[in-house]
Write a structure and sequence with these properties.
The chain is of the alpha+beta class. It is about 20% helix and about 35% strand. It has helices at about 15-25, 95-105, 125-130, 170-180, 205-210, 220-225, 245-250; strands spanning about 5-10, 30-35, 40-50, 65-70, 110, 120, 125, 140-155, 160-165, 185-195, 200, 240, 255, 265-270, 275-285, 285-290. Strands 1, 2, 3, 4, 5, 8, 9, 10 and 11 form a nine-stranded mixed β-sheet that branches. Strands 12-14-15-16-13 form a five-stranded mixed β-sheet, covered by helices on one side. Strands 6-7 form a two-stranded antiparallel sheet. The chain is elongated, with a radius of gyration of 22 Å.
């Protein structure tokens, strides 16, 4: 199977747990994910299968959209509800105006320190492994971009929000830092990812729904479960190649695409569903395969 499958990740599972379950359900080893979700978080987790795992390189800087709840009154060591409290809980009744004033400081390009319990590496070791040993974790602040940060509601000690962020942004750190500014402590109580790049909850299926589908390379399974290949990487133009062009691409040779002379990269299809390559312009109308998504003896099959 070669495709992109969007899972609505449940709380309590790591992203790797989801990948392992998908491997068992689909009976396929070659599966990866596009963007980790914390165990407590739910929502959009795109999985790439088969030869399309090679598309992961195009999604490393993908924009994400989240909805969630910040609880004020105490902070935790993980900056979320799964952590151990690090401050004494206090009763808090926030005013919408003061929450909005603090939230405004997190819009745009900001400096952010990742949580100690994160996958950021220190001398090659993930920070969370060091933190679990109760050792000091020192992480450098990095620039991140929060393109939208909307406060949806303020109710006593809780704030609901919606955020659209660039890759690398930790909403756990936003929650923690807001608590610091309001001098009452805070942590991320819940988080749901509603979009990654072009993928949304409308495309998503639960693991139970995937397991209920009959397995096999049927077009019904493809149409119902997997994102149509034509919808992938929508910012790249696409072309349907003839047999001779497909043959050249499959052998890694340069091809002439005169109708796309101004494009930098192009998706190449054989027919409506078979995404066979991403090609890069080298000069004029000549394009060279950046990645070839089919073997030397067969095209990417329908799922």
């Amino acid at each position: 199977m070669n495709g992109v499958l969007i899972i609505d990740k449940p709380a309590g599972l790591t992203s790797h747990d989801v990948v392992n379950r998908a491997r068992r359900i689909l009976q396929q080893r070659s599966i990866g994910h596009l963007g980790t979700l914390d165990p407590m978080a739910t929502g959009v987790l795109p999985l790439v299968t088969g030869s399309l795992t090679r598309l992961a390189q195009f999604y490393t800087a993908s924009e994400k959209v989240y909805e969630g709840t910040i609880r004020f009154g105490f902070s935790t060591d993980t900056y979320d509800a799964d952590g151990v409290p690090t401050t004494t809980p206090q009763e808090v009744h926030l005013h919408p105006g003061e929450v909005e004033a603090v939230a405004s400081r997190f819009r745009g390009i900001i400096e952010q320190t990742p949580p100690a319990f994160s996958a950021k590496k220190i001398h090659g070791v993930p920070a969370y492994k060091i933190a679990r040993k109760q050792k000091e974790v020192v992480l450098k602040s990095v620039q991140v971009e929060i393109k939208e940060f909307e406060i949806l509601a303020v109710e006593a000690d809780r704030t609901r929000f919606r955020a659209r962020v660039a890759s690398g942004t930790y909403m756990r750190s936003v929650a923690h830092d807001m608590g610091q500014l309001l001098t009452c402590g805070a942590h991320l109580e819940s988080l749901r990812r509603t979009a990654v790049a072009e993928f949304t909850l409308e495309d998503a299926h639960t693991l139970e729904e995937v397991a209920a589908f009959p397995q096999g390379n049927s077009s019904a399974t493809s149409d119902e479960l997997f994102v149509h290949p034509r919808k992938l990487l929508p910012n790249l133009p696409c072309v349907t190649a003839d047999e001779s062009t497909v043959a050249r691409i499959r052998s890694g040779r340069t091809v002439n695409l005169p109708e796309l002379s101004r494009a930098r990269q192009v998706k190449v299809f054989a027919g409506q569903r078979d995404l066979i390559a991403i090609v890069t312009r080298v000069a004029g109308t000549l394009f060279h395969p950046k990645i070839v998504l089919c073997g030397t003896d067969t095209l990417v099959r329908r799922l």
